[in-house]
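Predict the holo structure. Ligand: zinc ion.
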Amino acid sequence: MRSLARLAAAGVLGAALVAAGCNGGPPHETAPAEPPASPEARLEGLTALDARVASVSWTLAKANADLCPVSRQRAGWTLHSASQYGAELRPLAERRFGLEGDLPGILVAPSDSPAAKAGLAPGDLIVAVNGQALAAGAGGAGESYDGLKANIAVVDGALSRGPAQLTVRRDGADRTVELRPVLACAYDTQVDISDTPRSRFDGRHVFITNTMAELARNDDELAFALGHELAHGVLEHRTQPDVTGVKGASNWAISMRRGLSLSAEADADKMGVYLVTRAGFDPYQGIEFLSRLEEANPLLRSPQVNMGGIYEGTSTRRRALQPTLTEVTARKADGRALIP
Ligand SMILES: [Zn+2]
């Protein structure tokens, strides 16, 4: 095993070196990168992964609203804008999703979400809320999330007051739909692009890298990974949001320095089992995600201490969860409340 410090000095790991002290564990040498896919294939791949993560995240957020310390009225959608894409993908995203400047477009509307129930689907563009036009922005060439963020704040503000009338553009024609939000955990989930599988919670958002999400072989496993991070929210393990906000892909270092204790991680594993079960996922299937982590990073077979983080071995995590799995199964069978 080459030392992490040497890898860092060689620039092999770069930002990936600072893997968060949460799911994923320490970084390791990754296989050589595959040849880059075409922009079209990249956009389709990212969109499909976003849809999968968004759908599982929404199911978890809705089912556990009563346990989350912060909840709000939500539509369940994931929004995007032309302006958040770089020069290469932007024209494709505009064509594929009918995007325009900073206006929020539907990227994902999970099937059981208020957005889907209002008839919204990928390709729809939100142009006004309760008659108030949203700002399309100046249309600069640079990649920016700010305009979309401001528009989302306007839409969320309206939803916080209850049902809202949305003016939606599809194929150039505008129509008005009523969206009836429901209470869900307030935390958004963001997929970050990275060669290192990892996930974390910063007090306001769950972050998961594409390589972490891609490890999950089914929704139960993905729910286990996301449920662990949501559990940090339920347990109020992190109260300080990242200084970089929602585009905080750069802040893995700060997460790691704040590193949670092993007992906090064990508590999040246990609470995570409750959260996924409450949301209808199978925790016995979900726990297999720990095997995927170990396959992706054999260092996780044993406890690891490095770079200021401490990581439990996956077999220890799995063993520690057995009583919780038994407990949840018994509670379910008896019709008792699924509250730890
Ligand atoms: Zn964790």
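The mean pLDDT is 84. The longest strand covers residues 164-170.
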